[in-house]
Amino acid sequence: MSTSNKNNPFTRREFLQLLTTVGGATALSSFLQACSQAGIDPTSILTTETRQPTKHPTDRPKPTETVLQEPVNSEQSTPTTTESPAKAFIQNTAQIAFIKTSDRAQGVRQAMEMFNLDGIYGQNVFLKPNFNSAAPTPGSTHPDVLRSIVLTLQEYGANQITVGDRSGMGDTRKAMKQLGVFDLAEELGFKTIVFDELLANQWVMLQPEKSHWKSGFPFAKPCLEADFLIQTCCLKTHRHGGHFTMSLKNTVGMVAKDNLVDNHDFMRELHSSPHQRRMIAEINTAYSPDLIVLDGVEAFIDGGPAKGKKAFSEVVLAGKDRVAIDAVGVALLRYHGCKTEAAKGKVFQQDQIKRAVHLRLGVDSPEKINFLTADADSAAYAEKIKEILNA
Fold first, then answer.
1. Is the peptide bond before 138 cis (omega within 30 degrees of 0)?
2. Band of the pLDDT at 70, cuts 50, 70, 90?
3. Phi, psi (5° rounding) for residue 369?
């Protein structure tokens, strides 16, 4: 899984996107102003070279990794412990694509293309959707969103695309079938994984330092082994203790319900704990997404995750920073009338976000979030959300 390096030169596509975000500069003075705002040397952007994915070390404590084994017998070896696969890192700023739209497919593609997708070429991509249930969007990932992401990845040359999840509110295979995922996979040629059906050795036991998890949590190995990982989430509140469910909470679907060894129920542990929201953030130390796409065309501003009071929020977000994505999402919920726990206090004091910041999973303040917009309506909408973020 990769992340972008701000010290590398911009490609022509990225520079054109930059000009779009500062108002479509065409004159020399505007050109120089755009460069100044981006903190780059104007002579360095004229390269036509494509940047390659860059690996970044993490500077936060790493969780311990243990490969789970089948129930022990006399011929089995004991579990091994190795270095964590986590690659998360803290950034000075977070770029968030903000597209005002009621067209999911178009909005998703436009938001994705505000980032450098050239690194996808030839890569094995894992796509983690929100199939917590088969409930209509925003209860689950909309088929148009899934289709748009897959088609965009294929156009940029992805080698193999795999879609997988674990439902928290029912049978995963049944939910995916009801949502038409398997039919779409056959049509477009991507693979599917039902996490409920993984073997014990396809889970990795992780325990972050100073975690609220009693003995850690089992994380899906296919997510860790992908070259490029994208997750797509919805915009909604969560009435079962999470307060809101977006990119951080979407990661819960990568954790097994049971560990297949002693039948410990990790989801019961999570949802019965007074530290639930902190534990959600801690799961995210397992990996670092290459891109997040949030479908906010519709939102639940009360209830959730499967059903609730709906608002037409008309936005698609994309970015690499889970803290920034969720912070903007919380601000959107508030803008559209949310009165639940997600509406209380400063956005960055919400438990999921506060713990994620402490774990160095993303930016630590709203001032470090920059919106990328492509039209006046999106820019005006983003300014309103920025006001709530900074309140």
1. yes
2. very low
3. -100, 120
Angle, helices 143-155/104-112, rounded to nearest 10 degrees:
40
Interatomic CA distance for residues 357 and 365, integer angstroms: 9
CA 88, CA 286: separation in Å to the nearest integer?
Answer: 8
Residue pair 327/389 in contact (Cβ under 8 Å)? The answer is yes
Strands 191-194, 203-207: pairing kind:
unpaired
pTM for the predicted model, two decimal places: 0.79
Phi (first) and psi of residue 235, to 5 degrees: -115, 110
128: tokens are: 């983690």
- Chain center to CA of 330: 15
Lookup result for tokens 């084994």: 69
Tens of pLDDT, residue by residue over 341-378, are: 999 999 999 999 999 999 999 999 999 999 999 999 99
Q: In sequence order, what DSSP letters do the residues of 302-346 get, joined into one string?
A: EE-SSSEEEE---EEEEES-HHHHHHHHHHHHHHTT--SGGGSS-
* Number of neighbouring beta carbons within 10 Å of residue 81: 12
Please, is 52 exposed, middle or buried when counting C-beta atoms within 10 Å of its C-beta (0-12, 13-18, 19+)?
A: exposed
SS3 content of the chain, % helix, strand, coil (to 5): 40, 20, 40
User: Residues with Cβ < 8 Å from 345, sequence gap 6 or more?
Assistant: none
Q: Residue 27 has what pLDDT? A: 39
Q: Can you give the pLDDT at residue 258?
A: 84
Q: Residue 193: which residues within 8 A CB-CB, separation 6 or more?
A: 162, 163, 164, 222
Nearest to 316 by CA among 362, 269, 374: 374
Q: What's the Cα-to-Cα distance from 75 to each of 53, 69, 70, 71, rounded to whole Å?
A: 41, 12, 11, 11
Domains and CATH numbers, the chain: 1-56 (no CATH), 83-390 (3.40.50.11440)
**Alpha-carbon torsion, ordered 42, 43, 45, 50, to 10 deg:** -160
